[in-house]
Design goal:
By secondary structure, this protein is mainly α. About 75% of the residues lie in helices and about 5% in strands.
């Protein structure tokens, strides 16, 4: 996945380029030496490698932003790297492969494979990782998911060895998308959550939002629309802070689809029209055509066929101006279905015929595109043979005038040092801003989760719970009134009354477990003791010790620690066969320490690596607080769970 650079960094590059150019003009001797050396073979330019590295950064910047600029820098690298080591030639191949990946997948993959062959004896793993990731994207587009995952995991291993957080986050996001396409949603969610965590730490806004959008899609596919909408709202807030209308459009479209499938048509219409307004302002005709299709689908679901017909007609007009046969095919098919439902059979038949004509033209276009792509593949092979021939005839590089080399080197070094200091300063400012955004988003998610738990708990307690209690009381009255029943009937009625009573207790227990009111009515230490006192001492003896809790903790911290203690105690009762459990909580200036120790049977390191859902939940909750969690155990020696949460000033 390609990543954008901040606009401030683009400005730095522009200033640096101007500084370099003006520098040569201000030093006549240096300019003369540069002219003399440029009259010889290009390979003698001592600054050429640095220029190509700079052009490579620019082509990476434009990968998703501007395809024409990407092509410009890729060609520039290829033209100037012919006589340089293979690493520099590979940079050009990667740029061309990325350019063709949008529409010519086979050609793109051919270029990536040529780059990989050139890198066979190279030790530049960062380039290999980019090539592996590019091949993974190609195989993902071709739906060859096994090979896509093979190359993505190769790239991931390199990025992990290099501790390249940006690369790790991008590849994890792509792996998650592959599993989503395979409809393996639990695995997809696992990798997307990892990508979000890594991208959050790397403070990379675009990659972070891309992962969040994929997670929202997973929730939408799973009909978990509430979670999808929460993420979409966070994405819109982030897009607003970045002043990115295109990102706003993507998240608005997601929200519109969620509301449409929830049958909340007014909300769906609002977000689809907002999306259309943004895309119209951007002049993105393809997205506008897609918006009219979705608005037509919405009106069709509402059975407002005249309005749906207008939207599909708009989509066809835009598809004509775009020359998009796919949009026309979809719109004509939808119109045909509307006319059929409205008993306009002749119009339905005409619309169906128009759709089939668009489909036939689409097939012919794809055939012509494939022929053109094959021709480009052949020409690319010929170019590679010429490059290989030129490489075999390379002679030793001639000596460059010492004075010119020193002058140019000093000039470049001074410019690079200035740029490096400025870049570090701006990156720190950007990181501090994004840290605040990430922490705010995390708190919003936790608050939303707590509110949802509270709502469901209230529904259980005040709705289902009250109905169950009323039924139980009625059964008790009925049992007293029907004393004359035979013993078998009396026994059945007594059992039914008892089962309803037990169900009432279970509903009450679940509602209290989902949103513990004890945290609202008592301080945290008393709430924990209240929870442990309810556990029968015949099952396990629990001691609670706290220090430094005279002042209340933050609500989010208290809720998370309470949930973790609940999970740990329940796990001990279920699995440890322990008779004694000690809970110690210390709130100190440097942070919070929680220790939970039992005298149970313990477990081996191999079992620890097979984490259950409970352990994963505890890890993710503590990670929200930037804390660490660690288990120490061995067979027969009990278990110690230690948790450390740093104070706020230490997190930064």
């Amino acid at each position: 996945m390609a990543l954008f650079l901040p606009k401030s960094i683009n400005t730095i590059f522009s200033l640096f380029n101007t500084y370099m150019t003006n520098g040569f003009r201000l030093i006549p001797v240096c300019g003369l030496l540069f002219f003399l050396s440029s009259c010889q073979d290009k390979k003698q330019d001592p600054g050429l490698k640095e220029k190509i590295n700079y052009w490579n950064e620019r082509q990476s910047h434009f990968t998703l932003k501007n395809r024409d600029s990407l092509l410009y820098f890729a060609k520039l690298i290829q033209e100037n790297a012919k006589n340089l080591p293979v690493d520099y030639q590979v940079m050009g191949l990667i740029g061309m492969a990325k350019y063709h990946s949008y529409s010519k997948t086979d050609l793109s993959m051919k270029l990536f494979e040529q780059a990989l062959a050139l890198l066979e004896h190279s030790h530049t793993d960062s380039l290999k990782a980019k090539v592996y990731a590019g091949l993974g994207l190609g195989y993902k587009k071709k739906s060859d998911f096994a090979l896509a995952l093979e190359y993505f995991f190769k790239a991931l291993r390199i990025y992990e060895d290099q501790k390249n957080q940006r690369g790790i986050g991008a590849v994890l996001s792509n792996i998650g998308e592959v599993y989503q396409l395979k409809f393996d949603l639990p695995t997809a969610k696992k990798y997307i959550l990892q990508a979000i965590e890594v991208n959050k730490q790397d403070h990379n806004g675009i990659s972070y939002l891309a992962s969040m959008q994929t997670l929202a899609n997973i929730y939408g596919i799973s009909n978990n629309f509430d979670s999808a909408l929460i993420i979409d709202k966070i994405g819109i807030a982030a897009a607003d802070s970045m002043a990115s209308s295109s990102l706003r459009s993507i998240f608005f479209n997601n929200m519109g689809n969620c509301y449409m499938y929830m049958n909340k048509f007014d909300s769906a219409h609002y977000y689809f029209t907002q999306c259309l307004a943004l895309d119209s302002a951007e002049g993105n005709l393809a997205y506008m055509a897609d918006n009219y299709l979705t608005l037509g689908e919405l009106e069709k679901r509402k059975m407002n066929y005249p309005k749906a017909e207008q939207y599909f007609a708009h989509a066809i007009l835009l598809a004509d101006s775009l020359g998009s046969k796919q949009f026309k095919f979809n719109a004509w098919n939808e119109l045909s279905e509307i006319y059929r439902k409205d008993n306009k059979l002749l119009l339905a038949l005409d619309a169906k015929d128009s759709g089939m004509r668009s489909k036939d033209m689409m097939i012919n276009e794809k055939t012509e595109e494939k022929i053109a792509e094959l021709r480009e593949l052949y020409e690319t092979d010929k170019k590679e043979q010429m490059i290989a021939l030129q490489q075999s005839k390379l002679s030793k590089q001639k000596l460059i005038l010492i004075g010119g080399g020193i002058s140019m080197g000093l000039l470049f070094l001074s410019g690079w040092l200035w740029y490096h200091r400025y870049k570090i300063k701006k990156e720190k400012e950007l990181q501090l801003s994004l840290i605040g955004q990430r922490e705010t988003a995390t708190l919003e998610i936790l608050k939303a989760e707590a509110q949802e738990r509270k709502r469901v708990a209230a529904e259980l307690h005040d709705g289902v719970g009250q109905v169950m209690v009323a039924a139980w009381l009625n059964l008790q009255v009925l049992e007293d009134q029907l004393k004359g029943l035979d013993s078998e009937q009396q026994n059945l009625l007594h059992k039914a009354t008892g089962m309803v009573g037990e169900s009432c207790k279970e509903v009450r227990h679940v509602s209290h477990a989902m949103m513990p009111t004890v945290l609202q009515n008592k301080d945290f230490a008393d709430a924990v003791k209240d929870f442990t006192n309810k556990i029968d001492s015949k099952i396990i003896s629990i001691d609670v010790h706290t220090e430094g809790l005279e002042k209340p903790l933050e609500t989010v911290v208290e809720t998370i620690l309470y949930r973790v203690i609940q999970e740990a105690v329940n796990n001990t009762i279920k699995h440890a066969r322990a008779t004694q459990l000690d809970i110690s909580l210390y709130n100190q200036p440097e942070g919070i320490t929680l220790l939970i120790e039992d005298n149970g049977i313990g477990f081996s390191k191999a079992n620890l690596e097979k984490e259950g859902q409970g352990m994963q939940n505890m890890k993710s909750r503590i990670a929200f607080l930037h804390g660490t969690i660690h288990w120490e155990s061995s067979p027969g020696n009990g278990t110690l769970l230690s948790i450390n949460i740093p104070a706020k000033n230490e997190k930064k």
